[in-house]
């Protein structure tokens, strides 16, 4: 879009080229060894879920193999994945947390 002024100058009005940031799903993967109670604690601690919501998500992962913990900008998603990995390692559980552009 442009506006022609009387003096011949032209004002160009451009739409700001600001796209919303790409978002990433953070997901937990099922395994046979991590205790259910530990997964519930992880979801409460790192994803601010209530115990009820955390239990629902844990059971979904347990039954279906994968479940979404949250959707975040890339840096936040990467931090959550790292936090879960470090916490699981510290407690010697094989829990896997991954991210994927959504
Ligand atoms: N399958 C695990 C068990 O039976 C529980 C579990 C749930 C593990 C979710 C990981 O992301 C997970 N103890």
Keywords:
3-stranded antiparallel beta sheet, two-stranded antiparallel sheet, elongated, binds L-tyrosinamide
Largest sheet: 3 strands, antiparallel
Shape: elongated
Classify the helix fraction into a percent range. 40-55%
Global Rg: 22 Å
Total number of beta strands: 5
- List the ions, cofactors and other small molecules found in this model: L-tyrosinamide
Mean pLDDT figure: 92
Q: Helix-strand pattern, N to C? A: EEEHHEHE
Structural class: alpha+beta
Q: Which spans have pLDDT < 50 for at least 5 consecutive residues?
A: none
**Count of helices?**
3
- Spatial order of strands in the largest sheet: 4-3-5
- The percentage of residues in β strands lies in 25-35%
Cα(first) to Cα(last) distance is 33 Å
């Amino acid at each position: 879009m442009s506006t022609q002024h009387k003096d011949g100058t032209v004002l160009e009005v451009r739409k700001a080229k600001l796209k919303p940031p790409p978002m990433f799903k953070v997901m937990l993967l099922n395994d046979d060894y991590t205790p259910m109670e530990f997964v519930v604690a992880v979801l409460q601690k790192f994803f601010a879920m209530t115990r009820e919501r955390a239990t629902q998500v844990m059971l979904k992962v347990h039954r279906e193999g994968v479940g979404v913990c949250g959707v975040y900008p890339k840096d936040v998603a990467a931090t959550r994945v790292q936090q879960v990995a470090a916490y699981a390692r510290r407690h010697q559980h094989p829990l896997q947390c991954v991210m994927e552009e959504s």
